[in-house]
Amino acid sequence: MTTARSLADRWPLPDHNDLRDELLGAWDRDGYHDLLHLTEVLDRLDEMSAAGAGFDATTVRLAAWFHDAVYDGGPDDEELSAQWAERALPGAYADEVARLVRMTLRHRPADDDPAGCALSDADLGILAADPERYDAYVAGVRADFAHVAEHDFRAGRAAVLRDLASKPHLFHTAQGRALWEARARANLGRELEELGPR
Question: CB-side exposure of 194: number of CA atoms within 13 Å?
Answer without folding.
Answer: 10
